[in-house]
Amino acid sequence: MPWYIWNTTFPKGETRWIKVRYSLPRGTNKRNNFFNYVLHTGANWNETIGKATIKVNIYDIPDEDILHITPSGYTKEGNVISWTFTDFEPTLKEDIFVYYKKEYIELPRESADVYLDNKKADINLINPENITFFRVERADTLNFPASAIFIHTKEFDFTLLKELVRKASPGNFKELAELEVSEFYSNYEVRITGGETKKGESFHDLSVVDIAKIVIDHNGDKNQLIITKK
Question: Which of 62, 101, 110, 176 has the fewest CB atoms within 10 Å, measured from its CB?
Answer without folding.
Answer: 110
